[in-house]
Amino acid sequence: MNKLIKFGLLSALAISTVSCGDDFLEKPALEGSASLTSAQLEQASNIDPEVTGALMGGVYTLTFTFGSGGTSGHDDFGQKAYDIFGDMLSSDMALSTSTYGWYRASITEYQAPLDFTFGDNRQVWRHYFRIVRGCNEVIDGLGGTDVVPESAANKAIMGQAKALRAHSYFYLAQYFQKEYDGAEEILPIYRSATDLNGPKVAASEIYDLMEQDLTEAISYLDGYSRSNKTEINKQVAQGIYAYVLGARGTDYTKAYNMAKAAMTGYTLMSSSEITGGFTNVNTPGWMWGVDLNDEIGLGLVSWWGQMDYFAYSYPAFGDAKSMDQNLYDAIPANDFRKDQFVDNPGAYTHLMPLNKFYNAARTRYGVTRIVQDDYVYMRVAEMHLLAAEYAAFSGNDAQARTELKAIVSQRVPDASYIDGLSGQQLKNEIHLQTRIELWGEGKSYLALKRNKASVTRGSNHLSFVGTTIPYNDERMTFEIPEGEIQFNPFISTQNN
């Protein structure tokens, strides 16, 4: 049984602990006598590490819980919700048919990033700060952010909490800053659950916290063997760190080494696996994900409910998410990944990922409303592509070609064309391969910003067809939400 389910009551307690009202950094009181102080948690964790482990399990559930962004919207279901936001903002994912309206105005027409009163700004902000607060509750319960736990079990929990806190700050920094500028004040920083309503601090301070958290997490998780892939292990922490370093863009050699280290123990998905549905968290190429089951009970309001044509889902009933036509056209005919998409011009299913993300029953409208197919958060393919990218940005074209060929040779019959690439041409190819390999997995937005690139929308979008949008366009970055400006006395202006 999934560890998150086994912990039951304590996981529920963790979710209650990090729930929030209108001021989503306000510390809420738990019902009855269930409330635990940080001192009590610390004492309990010393006696039984499973107490804090269960609380950490509760924080993990926020990454896939309906409403974790504080709304009842069908686009509010945790990390995978914001993977869709990013893929649509980057234009690699086209909303090619819209019947129910999810994502259309606020995301694909860029209304939310231009208006701080739109709820999507608050939803993104609230989701990640809710996780930050949950991680801080766990960290406080282990003695505080500067304490090194004595037991191996508590070290592993502290490592997970710090890595997930860094992960949340990473996405906040990506979504609320146009590009890395260390001096720009962008977000509040909270190191403890007792820290409330802080001012914006410089991006360099946010990134320094991420780096410190991840350095400590990697140390604490050394030798830790997780019970399921929902938990962060050492390699996942190294993978998050590789993303952070790449976004900061000040040490590509260290970023390369971190991506290489993160590959340990994983193999690339095969040509058959990449058209096998992406449903099993135990796939060797998956580094981090969630084993969904009946007890977790996700249904329509989920990533699968927004993406899988073969489910009880929005794509089945009229909201098509498709690969951008220009991106599809850039995939060679002999590339196995081209088979992931249906090329049927004029049809509703044109360029939908019917052969990448799908329930095994392959029955339109779905045979069940309970999601049992799993979520993927991180794959080892990402690390190969990041290593190639960082080697190229370090000026080591030979190494970049080697890293890129390691993955492309698994996708096309002959990858020797890469041997003739160098400089910007090589960087462009790495970026293209990243967009193709990781389509629909929430990584296109991150890659667009790292590469300081622009994207031109293809013909199958419902808006801005043919428009070229650069990575640092005003439309690509969310605004600090209206509610934060109203309730946090230290923030009176938006982020731009």
TrEMBL record:
SUPFAM superfamilies for the chain: TPR-like
Matches recorded under InterPro entries: SusD-like_N, SusD_RagB_dom, TPR-like_helical_dom_sf
Domain annotation RagB/SusD: ranges: 352-455
Signal peptide: 1-21
Gene3D superfamilies hit by this protein: 1.25.40.390
Protein localization: Cell outer membrane
GO cellular component annotations of the record: cell outer membrane
Keyword terms of this UniProt record: Cell outer membrane, Membrane, Signal
Domain SusD-like N-terminal, first and last residues per copy: 113-240
Record-linked Pfam families: SusD-like_3, SusD_RagB
Chief place where the protein resides: membrane
Any coiled-coil regions, as ranges: none
Keyword Endoplasmic reticulum: no
Family as reported in the entry's similarity comment: Belongs to the SusD family.
Protein name: RagB/SusD domain-containing protein
Lineage: Bacteria, Pseudomonadati, Bacteroidota, Flavobacteriia, Flavobacteriales
